[in-house]
Every structure is written in structure tokens, then in C-alpha cells.
Design brief:
By secondary structure, this protein is an alpha/beta fold. Helix content is 37%, strand content 13%. The chain contains 7 helices and 8 strands; from the N terminus they run βαβαβαβαβαβαββα. The protein has helices spanning 12-23, 35-44, 59-71, 100-115, 149-170, 202-209, 237-251, and strands at 3-6, 27-32, 50-53, 77-80, 121-125, 175-180, 221-223, 226-227. It has an 8-stranded mixed beta sheet with strand order 3-2-1-4-5-6-7-8, with helices on both faces. Helix 4 (100-115) crosses helix 7 (237-251). The protein is globular. The relative contact order is 0.15. The structure holds NADP nicotinamide-adenine-dinucleotide phosphate. NADP nicotinamide-adenine-dinucleotide phosphate binds at residues 8, 10-14, 33, 37, 55-57, 81-84, 104, 125, 127, 180-181, 183-184, 186-189, 193.
């Protein structure tokens, strides 16, 4: 039996992954943005061990999420799943002055990775759209670019792959991988999404708990439990380090180098 923490498990693929892990007999700590969503999440995932709460758009609350997770003990696996989709019509600024999509999709998994006691396995939810992410990393804050919601989302999903691979390279004692779930009909994916929803949560669950040697790898990118080629820019070590540096500058949190 493994112990797994999943961000953004109040809905969609995070909730489905939590439900499947509980069904398989694992111990799962779920996460929701606030107390009310937390209660709803516990009701939707009967058998979950407990819930931690906090809005990942806020750096302060994200620190607090990490504290709650550390207070709950050690984890075998953490699934960085929570995200905002590609339909924000304008640059929405968080309380820290950051684009909302960047705060939730890029900075929160970075901060949580750095501050939560290191698990054995880390999974980062990316998207096929990461292939068109801006690999220059030049304008993370969208202060000069004209806002494009889909591009902003694609950029952050490339960041998630860069983060997964940077962690895999720095932390040799951890399996750190990224994956895309397919375009599926969750709140984010929308009702017309063409891919199989029932496959959308399985790869991250498999990577989290399976003893299959194919799941016990690091620095890889998956789709439906098979390796898939990520954007080649995600393999560029200098670019990985630049993303970590930008996240450190924005959050004030350092990611241990090994
Ligand atoms: N669905 C797709 O087609 C698709 C395709 C490619 C990649 N993905 C990736 O798969 C992952 C899961 O997506 P999904 O489709 O399951 O999305 P979803 O149905 O919209 O669920 C997102 C989850 O994240 C939570 N969340 C969002 N912002 C948060 C915040 N500021 N603080 C705390 N929690 C927050 C949501 O909480 P609430 O319920 O309270 O909103 C919800 O539990 C994401 O990383 C996404 O990028 C999805």
C-alpha cells in the first residue's frame, strides 16, 4: 500500500485518480482550494485519509499547503495535478501580481516540490499543448505580450515538463516524470473533448504506485502508460535551470540542487 498526495483532487482527473487509488487500497490525501471544497472532496472520495486546503494561486497559501502536507507525514508519491485551463480571456493577476495561470500551473508545483518532504515518486500533469509552449521563457509574466489564454496555458504545461525533468536530473533518489492525459471531458476539457476520459487518470496512478519496471523510471514523458516524445526544448538543461531560477526569483523558494 502506498501513500499518495494529489493536488487539485476536488474535481476532474485529480478526483478520479484519488478514487481509483482508494479503490486499489492505497492511502490518499486529497487537496482542495478551500474548506468547503475540501468537505465536498472528502464526500466524493470516500476512504480518503484526509484533506489539505489552500488556494494555489496564492504563494502564501501554497506555503501553507506544503506545511499541512509535511504535518501529515511522509508520502510515497505526489501527483501535481491542479491547474487552470486555457480559456482565461485576459491576464488575471493574483494577489502576488502574477498571471493566474502561471501561479497555479507553474509556480505552485515548483513551490510544493521544493517545500514538501521528498517523496519517492513525483508526477507532473502536462498536456499535448506543451509542444507549442514558448521555450524562450522570456516573458513569463505577460507584461509585454498581448494576452492569449491558450498560449499562456501551453507555456505553463511546457514549464511542468521542464520542472519534472529538472527534478529528475537534480534528485537522483526520486522518480520524477511528466505526462499528458489526453483531451478529455472534465470541467477543463469541456463536454466535446474527443479522448477517452476513462484513460485520463490511469497513467498518473500507474506511475505513482505500480511496481511495473516501466513505471519505475525518471525524467520521462508519458501518454496512456507509454513513453511519448516531449518537446525537445524540455531536455535542454540550461533552459530547465533558467525556469528554476525564475521560479526561485518569483517565490523566494529554493529547490535543493540534490
Ligand atoms: N482535461 C483535459 O483535457 C486535459 C488535457 C491535458 C492536460 N490536462 C491536465 O490535467 C490536469 C487536471 O485537469 P482536469 O481536466 O482534471 O481539470 P479540472 O477538471 O478543471 O480540475 C482541476 C482541479 O484543480 C483544482 N484547482 C484549480 N485551481 C486551483 C487553485 N487555485 N487552488 C487549488 N486547486 C485548484 C480544481 O479545483 P476546483 O474544483 O475547486 O475548481 C480541480 O480540483 C491539469 O494539470 C491539466 O492541465 C487536462
Amino acid at each position: 500500500m502506498a501513500r499518495v498526495f494529489i493536488t487539485g483532487s476536488s474535481d476532474g482527473l485529480g478526483r478520479m485518480a484519488a478514487q481509483l487509488l482508494v479503490e486499489q487500497g492505497h492511502s490518499v490525501v486529497v487537496h482542495a482550494r478551500n474548506q468547503q471544497r475540501g468537505q465536498e472532496t472528502l464526500a466524493a472520495v470516500p476512504g480518503a485519509e484526509t484533506v489539505v486546503t489552500g488556494d494555489l494561486a496564492s504563494i502564501r497559501q501554497t506555503h501553507n499547503v506544503a506545511e499541512q502536507v509535511n504535518a501529515a507525514g511522509s508520502f510515497d508519491a505526489i501527483i501535481h495535478n491542479a491547474a487552470i485551463g486555457y480559456q482565461e480571456p485576459r491576464r488575471i493577476a493574483t494577489e502576488d501580481g502574477l498571471p493566474h495561470v502561471l501561479a497555479v500551473n507553474t509556480l505552485a508545483p515548483y513551490i510544493l516540490t521544493a517545500l514538501i518532504r521528498r517523496p519517492k515518486r513525483l508526477m507532473y500533469l502536462s498536456s499535448g499543448l506543451h509542444q507549442s509552449g514558448d521555450a524562450s521563457l522570456n516573458e513569463l509574466l505577460w507584461e509585454k505580450r498581448r494576452w492569449q489564454g491558450q498560449q499562456a496555458y501551453a507555456d505553463t504545461k511546457l514549464h511542468d515538463v521542464l520542472l519534472a525533468f529538472a527534478v529528475a536530473r537534480r534528485w537522483k533518489d526520486v522518480f520524477s516524470n511528466a505526462l499528458e492525459p489526453g483531451w478529455v471531458a472534465t470541467k477543463m476539457g469541456g463536454p466535446r473533448a474527443p479522448d477517452d476520459l476513462d484513460q485520463g487518470h490511469r497513467t498518473q496512478v500507474w506511475l505513482a504506485v505500480s511496481e511495473d519496471p516501466a513505471a519505475k523510471v525518471t525524467g520521462q514523458y508519458f501518454y496512456h502508460m507509454k513513453l511519448r516524445a516531449p518537446n525537445p526544448a524540455s531536455r535542454d538543461v540550461e533552459r530547465q535551470e533558467r525556469l528554476l531560477e525564475a521560479c526561485r526569483d518569483l517565490s523566494g523558494v529554493d529547490l535543493p540542487s540534490r
